[in-house]
Design goal:
The chain is of the alpha+beta class. It is built from seven helices and four strands; from the N terminus they run E-H-E-H-E-E-H-H-H-H-H. It has a four-stranded mixed β-sheet with strand order 2-1-3-4. Helix 4 runs parallel beside helix 6. The longest helix has 27 residues, at 87-113. The chain binds glutathione (GSH). The site of glutathione has 14 residues, from helix 1. Glutathione (GSH) is lined by residues 9-11, 33, 38, 50-53, 65-66, 122, 125-126.
């Protein structure tokens, strides 16, 4: 199997980190988003959505969503468990993972894609048609990012990790979201003490450097 990805890209980092937690390695190929390699016919023949990460299995099956790729690896290598052990834990981890992804990662991406010069006219990831950057969407993305910081801090005031008392995929998505937010110069403030405590703990994991 082969994983198409880009070292710098937040979604690709989620998958790399997940693999590193499990001590797994797979063949990878870097796809340069800045130069638009993901929108060239060669890559669109692999993934018509023009997105990374994309996992292609030996039988040609294409899996092109980060969490679905992680789910596949979890089935292959169940330990350490990152997606939940029983019905309740699986549902809660999925719930927090999705909250962080939709409320946090997507909000940072909205502000980033609509403001970064390298994506001028490419404000929608994977879209080959020109998509102009829109200032109101930057404003919206920033507002939602701040709301996300408040929500995450409140959550981490209630539990050690995002989905409960242990490290899971929800922490990977949240941590990657916070480091991605630095690209738009947004960081949690002094009032977000729970985030800072958790961030320090999670940064100490060797796989966080994957
Ligand atoms: N929902 C997808 C999102 C994937 C995504 O947006 N990837 C970005 C890189 S982080 C991308 O491929 N961007 C393409 C582009 O910049 O045109 C996932 O979770 O895998």
């Amino acid at each position: 199997m082969k994983l198409y990805e880009l070292e710098k890209a937040p979604n690709a980092r989620r998958v790399r980190w997940f693999l590193a937690e499990k001590g797994m390695t797979v063949e990878t190929q870097q796809i340069d988003l800045a130069s638009g390699e993901n929108l060239k016919p060669e890559y669109l023949a692999i993934n018509p959505r023009g997105l990374i990460p994309t996992l292609v299995l030996d039988d040609g099956t294409v899996i092109d969503e980060s969490v679905s790729i992680c789910r596949y690896f979890e089935e292959l290598h169940p330990e350490p468990n990152l997606l939940g052990q029983d019905a309740k834990e699986k549902a809660l981890i999925d719930c927090w993972q999705r909250r962080v992804e939709f409320d946090g990662l997507a909000s940072v991406a909205l502000a980033f894609r609509n403001s970064t010069p390298v994506f001028a006219n490419r404000s929608v990831a994977g879209c080959p048609e020109p998509t102009e950057q829109l200032a109101p969407l930057v404003e919206r993305g920033l507002m939602l990012t701040h709301r996300f910081f408040d929500m995450l801090d409140k959550r981490l005031g209630e539990s050690d990790y995002v989905a409960g008392d242990r490290f899971t995929i929800a922490d990977i998505t949240a941590f990657v979201t916070l480091t991605f937010a630095r690209w738009i110069k947004e960081t949690p403030g002094e009032q977000h003490a729970h985030i800072h405590r958790w961030f320090e703990t999670v940064s100490a994991r060797p796989a966080s450097r994957a």
